[in-house]
């Protein structure tokens, strides 16, 4: 590592106040950079994450349209004391230079999500957020996408750097897995994660062939009685989640859309075979199905039932997934960002001069 940098990281979401995956990734990357000796301050609407090794600047935004109002609030902050501004969202009004280097990471496409989301109001909100992503890509010095397919919606991107998985926490264990078939799900019951559809496929196709099977659902919005064989685990700690990955037989997240899909990579790093519906993120993380199973929703239940009965196929998938997950190790991801932060010159285009630190 070169000289320690002062890094301002922007993420509206954090694990302390939201289950949105972008917040978890921003937290993990900020933690890794702070452990490497950089001074990192997280600018967020969410409260501080307990025990986080980085600083925190809390920008409170009450009322409606908070993500848009948060962006306006960030615009008013003095960021001239930082070497790097690294935004994971909500930096689209920062067109005047605020730090020596402005990096924007695009974690997916709201335009892509708008094609699949239900409800005219939510679709409009996604389109507006998509326009903000385009503007942010124009404003930043360096624009990073987390998967190659995301480039379709980004007018200018400089690099593809995937999301990172902390392999010190997510890794296989020598202890045996559960003594009965277990499918693990991490997501939401409602919406694009399609937990309800997985529960239906499990009930109709898996239980008749594997009466002792269980579906473990790490979710906070499931109904009180989700169905036979279904255990709702609620929100888990980091260690509890890692233990669940190591105990289950299969991981399944049948999302209609993922920009990347961190749970896929976490499961693969833990030696857990992955089954997913074919979406942008699952396609990339599983290397187009070479390191996991991609299927459509109607065939999801039968594929799960077949794999639960085939230990050899599960072992092959686990090995391929673990090899693929090595590319998403958080240490490698942080290495790539550090290299980008250290690039000279620190601008990609003509910009207004940096304000004096004394200003």
UniProtKB/TrEMBL annotation:
Keywords attached to this Swiss-Prot or TrEMBL record, sorted alphabetically, are:
Glycosyltransferase, Transferase
The UniProt entry, under Gene3D superfamilies, shows: Glycogen Phosphorylase B
Q: Entry's CDD domains?
A: GT4_PimA-like
What superkingdom does the record give? Bacteria
Q: Which residues form the Glycosyltransferase subfamily 4-like N-terminal domain?
A: 21-169
Pfam families registered for this protein in UniProt = Glyco_trans_1_4, Glyco_transf_4
Name the UniProt record assigns to this protein: Glycosyltransferase family 4 protein
In its UniProt entry, the species of origin is given as Cellulomonas chengniuliangii
Q: What is the lineage of its organism?
A: Bacteria, Bacillati, Actinomycetota, Actinomycetes, Micrococcales
